[in-house]
Write the C-alpha cells for this entry.
Amino acid sequence: NGGDIPFENTQYRGNVFPGLAWSAGPSGTKSYAVIMQDTGGTMPDGYPILHWTLWNIPANVIRLDAGMTPTGNPSSSSYGPNMRGAAQPYTGPRTPPGPKHPYHLQVFALDTTVPVDASSTYVSLTSAMNGHILASGEVVGMGSVDPNAPPPPPRPAQ
C-alpha cells in the first residue's frame, strides 16, 4: 500500500494483473466486487478513470492470481466496465508525465450478486452495489511514467 506499481503491471510493459488477496468478508457475504481506478484524473463524463472491474466473485474466493486472464477469472464472475468500455479485462496504468498518480484497488463484500444488466457502466455497477456493501478495503499503488518506454502511438484524428 502506497508503493510504486511495478512497470510489468502497467501498459508500459506487460500489462499483467498483479494479483490480489483479501480476508474473508463478514457473515452474509454472497459475492465480491473489485474496482481499480485512477483518482489522479477523471473521464470527460466526470467519472473516475476505471482500469478494471470484476463483479460477482464468489464468496469463497479471496484471492485472484497474478497474471489472471479473461479465461482464468473465477468462473461465475464477470468483467465490468473500464475506460475502454463494458466487459473489459484488466488494463494497467499508463501514467501520463508529471507527478505520480494514485491507483485505488478496492474490494467490496456484498450481501447480494449484481444483476447482469447493472454492470455495463460505472454508474450502473456502483448503483447496484449501493445498500449492499457489508465491508470494503483498498490498497493504493502509485503509478509513474516508465522512463524507458517509447511514446504512445498517436491517437486517430476525430
Q: What stands out?
A: The chain has a mean pLDDT of 90.
